[in-house]
Design goal:
Structural class: alpha+beta
Protein name: Serine hydrolase domain-containing protein
CATH superfamily of the largest domain: DD-peptidase/beta-lactamase superfamily
Organism: Streptomyces gobitricini
Number of strands: 19
Shape: globular
Keywords: Hydrolase
GO molecular function: hydrolase activity
Distance between the termini: 64 Å
Largest sheet: 8 strands, antiparallel
InterPro entries: AmpC-like (IPR050491), Beta-lactam-related (IPR001466), Beta-lactam/transpept-like (IPR012338), DUF7586 (IPR056008)
Number of domains: 2
Helix content: 10-25%
Length: about 450
């Protein structure tokens, strides 16, 4: 890991670079390199993280949704009127599918004071919409400016205040701030053809803050990465975070290794799915990737406008750890209790001639999996009425229910109108279209 970090700092020609790797809730490694001997940064050194600010903003929006204060399908106009783009939905803004322009009008917002854009109209400009809403992914910093304004309108407090009270304090992210706090790195531009540097300005972004204002450390971002994987009931549930990690729209043609959820970037690297975000502002580059299945978070921060690729380095660090130290499975343990009626439902079921296995899992849930070949596997959570709701795969959101005969015995399972019987094409009225009365036969 140190070799990978050292190579990135040298080949990327960056004044300094720091990385950290956390696993299962614990910071397990950090490493830093600097162009000044004896002054390598550590995991407590602040860097500007640019667009890694966006997942923080997205979490605040999802909290409002979970509290019932808004719906993701609500048009922006319902909560934030008079923007001129009020027909786009909150979900479209979160997933960069609203069709908004990527940047605000000139001058370049990342290198100029936010005071130059005092109103949303100054951020959006005269032509804010470039594409039909909901049709394609088009990354938009202005969209996240609107989400910051939405949070302020619904919550009734400034974005920065909501961020601190609802995310930073509960998660203990004491070194994540909107303005730099010592010790922090200075942003530099490195000449592309000579080994000389130029200081970059560190502007307050004003209304654009919710798209890229934050400063943070490798240690704080490692803790945030753990939250993105496992959730924290004080902030967001793991179910909501799974929703955020689901692609919002199909990827662009030819770009099947990456996507975007609700405030989170998604990539496939070496057979692993990583979630997180990259970030950049003049003088700084940042990368945060979480390998949810491996329980590994990697953070890489650098203070150069261009050069190293923190996202690539962070993905490499996840791979290095996962390959060298594969995650040890949790020991098998029996369920603390199980409903006898649920136990009776477990075992083989048939959708037509496809054999499936129904298993009882924790908290009264079930898991349906094909017994051989390809098929649609899903996990289901139990509901108060005794049905189950799909959590992943093809059956996400679909209802699984037990259909009983008049005498109370189980006839079949109904999953979104699909009938599962105890025997393949069981001779009963449960099979849609009926079963040939002559039954099974040979040639």
């Amino acid at each position: 890991m140190l070799h990978r970090v050292a190579t990135a700092q040298t080949e990327g020609r960056t004044p300094s670079l720091v990385a950290a790797v956390a696993r299962d809730g614990r910071l397990m490694w950090e490493g830093g390199r600097s162009c000044v001997d004896g002054q390598a940064p550590d995991a407590d050194t602040q860097y500007r993280i640019g667009s890694i600010t966006k997942p923080f903003t997205a979490v605040l929006v999802m909290r409002l949704r979970d509290e019932g204060l808004l719906d993701l399908n609500d048009p922006l106009e319902k909560h934030l009127p008079a923007t001129g783009v009020g027909e786009v939905t909150i979900a479209q803004l979160l997933g960069h599918t609203a069709g908004l322009a990527a940047e605000s009008p000139a001058p370049w917002w990342e290198r100029t004071p936010g005071s130059l854009r005092p109103e949303l109209a100054d951020v959006l400009g005269e032509r804010p919409l470039l594409h039909p809403a909901g049709r394609r992914h088009h990354y938009s910093n202005t969209g996240y400016t609107l989400l910051g304004a939405l949070i302020e309108a619904v919550r009734g407090v400034p974005w920065e205040q909501a961020l601190k009270a609802e995310i930073l304090e509960p998660l203990g992210l004491t070194r994540t701030t909107t303005q730099p706090v010592t010790p922090h790195a200075r942003g530099w531009a490195v000449h592309p053809w000579a080994d000389v540097m130029l200081p970059e300005p560190a502007e307050d972004l004003g209304l654009m803050a919710s798209a890229g204002q934050l400063w943070s450390t490798a240690s704080d971002l490692s803790r945030f990465g753990l939250f993105l994987a496992e959730g924290d009931e004080r902030v967001l549930s793991v179910q909501t975070l799974r929703e955020m990690r689901t692609p919002a729209v199909p990827p662009e043609a030819g770009d099947w290794d990456s996507g975007y959820g609700l405030g989170l970037q998604l990539v496939r690297r070496g057979g692993r799915t990583l979630v997180g975000h990259s970030g950049s502002l003049p003088g700084f580059l940042a990368g945060l990737w979480v390998g949810v299945e491996d329980g590994i978070t990697a953070v890489v921060l650098a203070n150069a406008t261009s050069g190293p690729a923190p996202g690539v380095v962070a993905a490499d660090l996840v791979r290095i750890v996962a390959d060298a130290e594969p995650r040890i499975p949790e020991p098998w343990r029996p369920l603390p209790e199980v409903d006898p009626a649920l136990l009776e439902l477990t075992g083989p079921w048939y959708w037509g001639t496809y054999p499936y296995d129904l298993r009882a899992v924790e908290d009264g849930g079930v898991e349906l999996s094909p017994l051989r070949g390809q098929g649609r596997a899903s996990r289901f959570r139990v509901e108060e009425d005794g049905t189950w709701t799909g959590l992943d795969g093809y059956y996400t959101g679909e209802t699984l229910r037990v259909v009983r005969r008049e005498d109370g015995s189980v006839s079949h399972l109904d999953l979104g109108s699909f009938v599962f019987t105890r025997e393949p094409y069981e001779s009963a009225d449960a099979v849609p279209g009926g079963v040939d009365e002559d039954g099974w036969r040979g040639i």
